[in-house]
Amino acid sequence: MKPMYINGQWITSSDGETIDVYNPATEEVIDTVPNGSPEDAVKAIEAANVAFEEWRWVTALERSEMLQEAARKFRDNFDEIVDLLTLEEGKARPENEEEGEWTIGTLDYYAGLARNSRGRVLPPAERSQFNFVIKEPYGVAACIVPFNYPLLLMIWKVAPALAAGNTVIIKPSDHTPLTTLRLAKIVFDHFPPGVVNVLTGRGDRVGDVLVEHPDVPVIAFTGSTAIGQRIAALAAKRVKRLHLELGGKDPFVIAPDADVETAVEAVAYAALLNAGQVCTSTERVYVPQEMGDTFAGAMVDFVRSLRLGPGLEPTTDMGPLAAPGYRDKVAGHVADAVEKGAKVLTGGKIPAKFERGWYYEPTVLVNVNHSMKCMREETFGPTIPIMTYRTFDEAIKLANDSDYGLGAVVRTNDARLAKRFFEEVQAGTVWINDPLTDNYAGPFGGMKMSGNARELGEEGLESFLETKHVHWDFSDEVKDYWYPY
Ligand code: NAP
């Protein structure tokens, strides 16, 4: 059993409940963690709140050095961390190495930004006045993290929150808490007690306390739109600062000028990375009508060449899904599409070669339309539904015909089409030619039902800073606008 980390101490749940953590490649229990109780959540909030009283005055330079120290410790323990991440999350090891590198990079990036001065001086309204804006930390930040990139999506919140002078309570997914606990032990252990806390426990047990407690002024949540909506409703009672990074249904438009072979590989990567469990996974592909058959045929050939297996096998291209429920959802979307007239060109089933593990074959679908779940709801699995279009206008219309607006991709070297795409498509990130790449300085987040926040970049730091305007008058005279009128 791995205890949770609250106030610099390793503790079990107050009522002794635990959660089993599974290896998705073998369905075996790897370890257990405490199923934190509402009382444990209050304990974490109190600890983080007390720690904030001192942490908020630690200088930006010292905070920066502590973040750099965390990055260094991560680098020193890189392989061990990446192996554990692969065991509990399931994706292929190279993808977890990348997640590790990005986590380190985010620490370094916010260590740099932490040292930048904040605020600005304003032109005063009167000669005797001096006006300025300062930026302050909020206090305790609840950082609620999903299973698919447990470290990256955690550090996108925790690094800027700490850089800004907040204390944090990390609530990892109950599917992937182990690596986060390991980080608390070997990467964050130099932070004062209570500054970084890891509260394990099922979301429906500890979530409401974190969201509703008056001493948690800011909530940073990444996860499904359904849970995000619930959190938003609860947080509204106290008008809390709320950053929501939610689901997606990203379109990938292949323009008429695109090279088919390269476009096929770009789409396969964007749709199948982490077995399609990326918030910005390509979930809808739009291809010019005249290219449809060639593209679908080449996609089938490419997808069939990919090797499924456990994440730790060096030959694995694609791992299993993280939990059986996620696989059931993918199978449900494929069944719905087939019922409504879609054709499965390859995949569409659980592979026979594995006795255990939550695998699903990468699946290419054609004859799809927007009445099908696979084109409307987030699938979060290895599916590639391909639809044809006649004009670029129609492609943009189809791309925007969604409740979601997280990311969107186009492959083209026609500058006029690229410009139309990035101007007209409703998405927080637009990738032209190279899908799913991030930039530490580039804000990431969604439009429409994909969320209301931006992580990374200066915007990511701003999310954890409160704005205060100071109006200072240096004259002792009675003002002519005071009473009596
Ligand atoms: P999820 O089921 O919504 O869970 C996300 C987190 O919320 C988990 O830690 C979960 O804890 C917790 N939670 C559950 N119920 C809660 C409650 N009532 N109050 C507070 N927290 C609660 O999402 P997931 O299945 O882990 O992740 C997949 C989803 O995340 C997809 O929709 C994906 O698109 C989205 N996502 C979005 C982004 C983005 O940046 N926009 C990035 C990655 C993923 P338990 O695990 O213990 O239930």
Strand and helix layout:
Blueprint: E1 4-6, E2 9-11, E3 18-23, E4 28-34, H1 38-55, H2 60-76, H3 78-89, H4 93-114, E5 120-122, E6 129-137, E7 140-144, H5 152-163, E8 167-171, H6 178-186, E9 196-198, H7 203-212, E10 218-222, H8 225-236, E11 241-245, E12 250-254, H9 260-272, E13 282-288, H10 292-304, H11 324-339, E14 343-346, E15 363-366, H12 373-376, E16 383-389, H13 392-400, E17 404-405, E18 407-411, H14 415-424, E19 429-432, E20 447-448, H15 457-462, E21 465-473
Parallel strand pairs: 7-8, 7-10, 8-9, 10-11, 12-13, 12-18, 13-16, 15-16, 18-19
Antiparallel strand pairs: 1-2, 3-4, 5-6, 6-21, 14-15, 17-20
Give the number of DSSP strands: 21
Total of helices: 15
Proportion of residues in extended strands = 15-25%
How would a textbook summarize the main sheet? Answer: 7 strands, mixed
- The helicity comes to 25-40%
The CA-CA distance between the termini, in Å, is 72 Å
Q: Which cofactors or ions or other ligands sit in this model?
A: NADP nicotinamide-adenine-dinucleotide phosphate
If strands are numbered along the chain, what order do they take across the biggest sheet? 14-15-16-13-12-18-19
| Unreliable stretches | none
Name the average pLDDT. 97
Query: What is the SS-derived class?
Result: alpha/beta
Report the principal-axis shape: globular
